[in-house]
Task: structure prediction
Amino acid sequence: MQRFERIWIDQCEAAERIREEHGIDKALGYLVGEKLMNFLEVSKQKPEFRGELPHFVARVREMFSPAEIERYLRSARRVGAPGHVLSDEDYEEMREAGAFDESPVRAAQDLLLFEEMKRLLGVA
Result:
C-alpha cells in the first residue's frame, strides 16, 4: 500500500493521461493548479508531505517544459478543481451562489501559496 504523502505519483500519472486526452492546459490545471497547490498547502502542516514536495516539484518540471509551466502560471485566472473543470460561466454561477470561500484571508492564503509554487517551479 502506497503512503498517502506519495499520492503525487498517481496524480502525475493521471496528468499524463489528461494531457493525452484533453491537452496540456487541462493537465497543467489539474496537476499544478489543483494537486500541487493542495500538496503545498498540506506540506505546511505535515512533515511527511514537506519531505515529498521536492520530488513532486521535480517530476512536474520533468513532465512540462519551463515555457509550458511559465505560460500556465502567468495565465491562470483561478486555481483548484473549479479552476480547470468549470467554464467561466459555470464558475461565475457557482461563485454567485456562494459555493466558494472568497474571504480576504482565503484569498491571501491562496496568493501566498501560488507565489511559493511559482518560486518552486522556477517562475519569477
Residues 4-120 form one domain.
